[in-house]
Amino acid sequence: MTNNRPVYLFSISSHPDAVSVNSLSITFLQPHIDFSKYDAFIITSKQASKALEQYQTHSFQNIPALCISKASAKSYEAIGGRVLDIGGGYGDNLVQKIKNYPKNMRWLYLRAKIVASDFVLACKKEGYTIDEVILYESSCSKDILNITVNEDAVLIFTSPSSLECFLQTHILSQCNIIIVIGTTTAKAVPKEFEYHISEKTTIESCIELAKRF
Hints:
Elements: E1 7-11, E2 19-22, E3 24-28, E4 40-43, H1 46-52, E5 65-67, H2 70-78, E6 83-86, H3 94-98, E7 106-112, H4 119-125, E8 129-140, H5 142-146, E9 154-157, H6 160-169, E10 177-180, H7 183-186, E11 196-197, H8 203-210
Parallel strand pairs: 1-2, 1-9, 4-5, 4-7, 5-6, 7-8, 9-10, 10-11
Antiparallel strand pairs: 3-8
Helix pairs in contact: 1-2
């Protein structure tokens, strides 16, 4: 912990140096997918890989995935998948990655019901073929809605939804130190509050930043 300030991590993942609060409840869906139609997946969270576990591994394991981060890449490899490429941690960064591949490549974006980036629309405008399938949806967990935090706490948010869920039942204090994992999450911070963006889009980087305060 940093200077006796408690550090709260609002994420699906946890970290030993913070009070870890599971921010979301995940519901996995299982729509029919004709995997034979696609050349590559787009994966922007570990939850997408977990959702794929509902399908027979042999039906998709030969389809490589463009993953948004190293963490999402590891999650896909963990279920027997092969990584095509890794983005810089932001949905918007995937546009340039996709442009490195032929326009006749057939992509399938394995996504949540609600997403924060419109990179798919941007790519479609450039003539790329990207289908989308909703594999999971999230709702605010009881943990984040009911947690009590100190007024001077360091608050780490790893997604726009984790911050939005927190704000449903809590009020931010100007004494709070707010840390966000990236620019997409930063957009969810109320305009009257200052925030700090981690150097890398990882929880470890957020924790390192928290320790400076």
